[in-house]
Amino acid sequence: MRLILLGPPGSGKGTQAQRLVHKHGIVQLSTGEMLRAAVAAGTPIGLQAKEIMANGGLVPDEVVVGIIADRIEEPDAKKGFILDGFPRTVPQAEALDELLRKKHLKLDAVVELRVNESALLARVEKRAEETRARGEDVRLDDTPEVLTKRLAQYRSLTEPLIHYYSERRKLLTVDGMMTIEHVTREINRILGALGALGEEEQVKPAKKASKGARKTAKVAGKPAKKPAKVAKKAASPARKAAKAASKAKVAKKPAKKAARGASARKGAKATKKVAKKLTKKRAKR
Ligand code: ADP
Predict the structure, then answer these.
(1) Residue 103: DSSP 8-state
(2) What is the pLDDT of residue 276?
(3) Which of 38, 90, 92, 163 could make an SS bond with 46 (beta carbons 3.0 to 4.6 A apart)?
(4) What pairs with residue 20 in β-bridges?
């Protein structure tokens, strides 16, 4: 299984990636982790990335594409992988498509974790506090100021990937505001409904797809060759729910797009407000 996890900083990509790794025996490829390791080791890439990362910028596309191209060649990535933090720009996504095409590998799905921006600063602040409590070093870019910048980068450079993968019928959107456990269950359920998991990995469909599940499993598209199979097996409630959700999303698309623009603007405002609050809180400490 080859997956991409897409979502802003603090959306839970890392947490969910680890859970998927555990369950499906595939590797997590996090460009953020790899770059942090390169910085710590003082390699040429690390030296190049250090400042950029500390300021919340993006490392050049060719650098991260190079890292991923090498990494997916490793034997442990043969069974499958979850990309976390990559691709982050449309050129990175195009480079990945090309890489996979050359290797005759298929991308199963892109899971977007959708969250309210106003919750992200608090989540990242909590992560920093927990790291501090464990006596570990807090990430240099986990400050309200840098996070605001990382979020702005996400909106302008990474969010277009939602459209990119939706057009290619690879996008699955999950409500990332649910509990960690719920998000994991939802991801496994929709991957199962898509047939992205091997037979032995299939999650048993819920007896009756709950209203909540129907609401959150917004399957924007199915991998190109799957519809016939999915339609045939549509007897299971999970598949029915996925199908219904898929139709609903297509129908509502234009309205949603407008709503997304409005909510992004609102999110940006809220983010600034929370960032200010957190900076004040810090100053007091
Ligand atoms: P986040 O919590 O923001 O998702 P990550 O650990 O994925 O953080 O990434 C941390 C930093 O590493 C980013 O802000 C960026 O500077 C750099 N980085 C990670 N992945 C990429 C990428 N695919 N392209 C460019 N820069 C990246």
Answers:
(1) T
(2) 60
(3) 38
(4) none
- pLDDT tens digit string along 219-267? 444 333 333 333 333 334 434 444 444 433 333 334 444 444 444 445 5
Identify the DSSP state of 10: T
Catalytic residue among 2, 19, 36, 150: 150
User: DSSP H helical segments within the chain, as ranges?
Assistant: 13-24, 31-41, 44-54, 61-71, 90-102, 117-133, 144-153, 160-167, 180-194, 211-216, 227-232, 237-284
* CA–CA dist 202, 194 (Å, integer): 10
Looking only at the bridges linking them, the beta strands covering 218-219 and 171-175 are antiparallel
Work out which ligand 1 atom sits closest to the CA atom of 68. Answer: 23
58 vs 149: CA distance, rounded Å: 10
Kindly state if the Cβ of 88 falls inside 6 Å of ligand 1.
Answer: yes
127 is catalytic: yes
- Nearest-CA residue for atom 14 of ligand 1: 56
For residue range 206-216, list pLDDT tens digits in order.
444 344 433 34
pLDDT at 46 over 60: yes
